[in-house]
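Protocol step 6 of 9: fold each sequence in the batch and record its C-alpha cells directly after the sequence line. For illustration, a two-sequence batch is reproduced in full.

Sequence one:
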Amino acid sequence: LFRSFTGANESLYVDFSNDPSASPIPVGNIAVNGVALANDSLYVMGASPAQGFTMTDYLIGPNGGGTVAYQNIDALHVGNMTVNYSGQLTTLQSLYIENQATFIWG
C-alpha cells in the first residue's frame, strides 16, 4: 500500500489496538511519502504497552511483522507500545511519544 500526501496537514493512522491478533499492515507493507514542511503526520498505535516495535530513521513496524516506510513526514506519533530505535532521528521534524509508550534508543 502506497500513500502519497499531496497537500498540507494530512495524516495516516496505523492502529493495532482494535484487534491485536491481526495486523493493519498489508502483505506488501505500507509506504508513506509526505510533503516536506507541510505538517504531515503518521500515527502508529500499538495493541498494548508490551507490544514491541522496531524503528529506524525510515521504517517502523511490529517485531516479526510488516513495516511502514516513511519519508518527508514532519511528525511521527507512537503510542501504546515499546519502541526499540536505532538511528539518528534526523529524518523527522517531531517525534511524539504518546500515552503508554516506551522509547528505547540504542
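Sequence two, same batch, same settings:
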Amino acid sequence: LKELYLRKNQLNFIADKVFNHLNRLNILDLSLNNLTKLENSTFDNMALLEYLNLSFNFLSKIQNRHFSDLNNLVDLDLSHNFIQSIEENSFNYFFKLKNLFLNSNPI
C-alpha cells in the first residue's frame, strides 16, 4: 500500500503503532477528523512517508517524538488545529521537508 486516505472519518484516536506494518506508505491523509492527540510512536517505521496531512483536527501539542521516524517527509500539514505548543526539536528529523503548514493555529 502506497497511499492511505482516512480523511473525514470522525476518528477520535489512533492506536499506538497502528501504522507500523505500512512501512511502504508514501501518502497518509488523516485530515478532517477529531484527533486530539498523537501517540509518540504513531508514525514509527514509516520512513518512506513523504506526505502527512493532519489538518482540521483538534491537536493541541506537538511533541518532539511524534515525527522522529519520518526522515523522508516532504509535506506536513498541521493547519487548522488548536496547536498551542510545539516542543523544541520537534521538526529536527525532517531532512527533506519542503512544506510545513501551521496556519490557523493559536501558536
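Proceed to step 7 once all outputs are recorded. Observation for sequence two: The first strand starts at residue 3 and ends at 5.
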